[in-house]
Amino acid sequence: xxxxxxxxxxxxxxxxxxxxxxxxxxxxxxxxxxxxxxxxxxxxxxxxxxxxxxxxxxxxxxxxxxxxxxxxxxxxxxxxxxxxxxxxxxxxxxxxxxxxxxxxxxxxxxxxxxxxxxxxxxxxxxxxxxxxxxxxxxxxxxxxxxxxxxxxxxxxxxxxxxxxxxxxxxxxxxxxxxxxxxxxxxxxxxxxxxxxxxxxxxxxxxxxxxxxxxxxxxxxxxxxxxxxxxxxxxxxxxxxxxxxxxxxxxxxxxxxxxxxxxxxxxxxxxxxxxxxxxxxxxxxxxxxxxxxxxxxxxxxxxxxxxxxxxxxxxxxxxxxxxxxxxxxxxxxxxxxxxxxxxxxxxxxxxxxxxxxxxxxxxxxxxx
Length: 367
Ligand code: ATP
Ligand code: MG
Hints:
Blueprint: E1 2-11, E2 14-20, E3 25-29, H1 36-48, E4 67-76, E5 79-88, E6 91-96, E7 99-100, H2 104-107, E8 113-116, H3 122-125, H4 128-142, H5 144-168, H6 176-214, E9 221-226, H7 237-258, E10 269-274, E11 277-278, H8 279-282, H9 285-307, E12 312-315, H10 324-334, E13 340-344, H11 352-357, E14 359-362
Parallel strand pairs: 3-13, 3-14, 8-12, 12-13
Antiparallel strand pairs: 1-2, 1-4, 4-5, 5-6, 6-7, 9-10, 10-11
Helix pairs in contact: 4-5, 5-6, 5-7, 6-7, 6-9
């Protein structure tokens, strides 16, 4: 798939702008603070209805404006579809083919995007929460129904935690409601866990050889999902449900004592190893970056495998950070099949072959 054009209104530092994109490579050039990341973010928002760098939709609307709008035409399965996301004081609206999609899980997946930006190093270096977010976003865009179960899980988790707090403070003694919420939590949590395990399995099949290639065969990547309950990667849904049941039963008094839910997918993590060493603890900056890059490239292949079309790739400020070998490897992988957007403050750091093929956009002060 690719994005043919985009129009933004009152979005970030853009008052109004329309751009026609190249089917292959688009290079966005501009000095600091001119709107390069904002433009990448606009494409990301069109895919996910939310930003990769803020959870506050309000920040996307141009200062002192009533609303902000992003529209784009997506070409996929040999057809063109309009997409539109509008933010205002009334909330946000997302339209696919001019029709408003009330449920997020009905809209997401219309456009598949993989972004690689400097902050993706946090995927390796950062907190477990950032790794869970990676799985949730990437898995969600491949299987929108996952977003539904995750949303339900998070809602029930909040209620359950509030109830556990009440039980802890003895504002409440009856545990009937707790048992009902536990059952609902297991219903959605076990699906979330099962989908994550399957996703990880497939992602690893792509990421390991890609990583091997980027590191010229010198490094071996390993990825482990670290669940908060005792399951392995091929545990089936039935067994996951049983495992959670047993855990919540034996943990009940401790959960009441602590006033919070102690097991579940919201407590899980991922660990990356390079040549058997934990990359988070021992990896160099370059090794951490290569790990993150391999995951993103694996995601591109996985989307093609699952969705039947390649996603759009957004490279914000990262291409010139990669050494020559990594840059060529990246560009060879995507050559001709993945529509790519690259931002840079200067064309100096970018291969001349890339520049020759690319459509160039000079961004100055939101224009
Ligand atoms: P850099 O090279 O430093 O990464 P950039 O070109 O990627 O720069 P952006 O992150 O796109 O810069 O930001 C461009 C400008 O947009 C910034 O000056 C920022 O203050 C401004 N900006 C951000 N949000 C809004 C908003 N809601 N309304 C108006 N301007 C905004
Ligand atoms: Mg930027």
